[in-house]
Design goal:
The chain has 3 helices and 8 strands. The chain is an alpha+beta fold. It is globular and about 35 Å long.
């Protein structure tokens, strides 16, 4: 069962628990050589490959079931592809994880602005839950 690295709305348990069925251990983690940017006119972000040693902070969920990975694939939709990348957890321990990366053909929907997780948690999460079509799948 794969580990899944989340860097946007899925970092927040409220959103994560609306998508998956299982309960998972988790840890803070960092994805190196990517940057996180806001998606234009949306509450959620995308990551893009870019040489950046600081990387993207997020949450790593351990041993996610295949069924829940399929649910996450549906949630992420057409704009993202799932890639296997290396992330760092506790004291720079590398682990392989699934990461949802914006597809090249959709890079035009990504802004140049950084995505702000604090803004999402305090302001954007409610609007996101009400409006995001990924929640309206027939699971």
């Amino acid at each position: 069962m794969p580990h899944v690295f989340t860097y946007g709305s899925l970092m927040f348990e409220t959103v994560w628990n609306l998508v998956v069925q299982g309960e998972y251990e988790k840890s803070d983690a960092t994805l190196a050589n990517y940057i996180r940017r806001a998606v234009i006119n949306q509450e959620y972000p995308a990551v893009l490959p870019q040489i950046d040693p600081a990387g993207v902070d997020g949450i790593l969920y351990f041993n996610v079931t295949d069924n829940d990975v399929l649910r996450l694939d549906e949630f992420e939709g057409q704009f993202y592809t799932r890639k296997q990348e290396q992330v760092m957890v506790e004291k720079n321990t590398p682990l392989s994880a699934e990461v949802y990366v914006i597809k090249d053909r959709y890079r035009h929907i990504v802004s140049k602005n950084a995505w702000d997780p604090v803004h999402f948690e305090t302001t954007g999460i409610n609007r996101f839950i009400q409006n995001y079509t990924g929640f309206h799948q027939a699971w």
